[in-house]
Design brief:
28% helix; aminopeptidase; 4-stranded antiparallel beta sheet; metalloaminopeptidase activity; alpha+beta; Creatine Amidinohydrolase; Creatinase/aminopeptidase-like; EC 3.4.11.18; Methionine aminopeptidase; globular; 24% strand
Length: 264
Amino acid sequence: MIELKSADEIGRMAVTGRFVGELLAELGAAAAVGVNLMDLEHQARRRIAERGAQSCYWDYAPSFGRGPFRNMLCLSVNDAVLHGLPHDYVLRDGDLLSIDMAVGIDGWVADSALSVVVGAPDPADLRLIEATEVALEAAITAAQPGGRLGDVSHAIGEVAHSYGYRVNGEFGGHGIGRTMHESPHVANSGRAGRGVKLVPGLTIAIEPWFCRSTDRVKYDADGWTIRSADGSRTAHSEHTVAITDSGPQVLTRRPEVRQGRHTS
């Protein structure tokens, strides 16, 4: 069942969204050659505790995971794209890092992700990240009241194809609000004019992610980390968005990430 949010409730989600956006920008700036992934995880734990927020990831235990997720970030490196477990890994020159986080404040959740390259970037990696960012902005633009959810999915797929990337249909965006995952599912490819009607009060997380040369994925033995099936690089961008009478409202906009890439 889809729960529509009032203007006041969207405002409360926006409070969470601002914190998520600011912390993501901070973590993206901190990601550098020589930094351990666990340093980023502990930085997030400290900042979330200081804010009095709650991580939506801690103790998260869906059917596909192996045991509860006892971390506050998903940190996915290079060919890993989703649900990467923070672990003892020191970032190397040219690594492509995706950072994903979802947090609740006073009962209202926001979810966002970004990808950055540490050190000297490969232009192909920057292009891949750019594709996810352009797809995200296109999807947000398509999220107009009176439209259909398929408009959002179609916008993502069109950008992916224009860059020459294929789209995996197993994982996409989702409804969000009181919990991290609510209805509806937001696919990363679809037909315009189809699906759930976009009405004011609908809140969704839109998250295009692409692999450089495949649309197939594989899982690590940990049951969490999802990688490209062929070992190619991956990237992921995400924002929490509210449909309002005046159009889409992005709740997780963030400051510029000065470390490597300008992000939305």
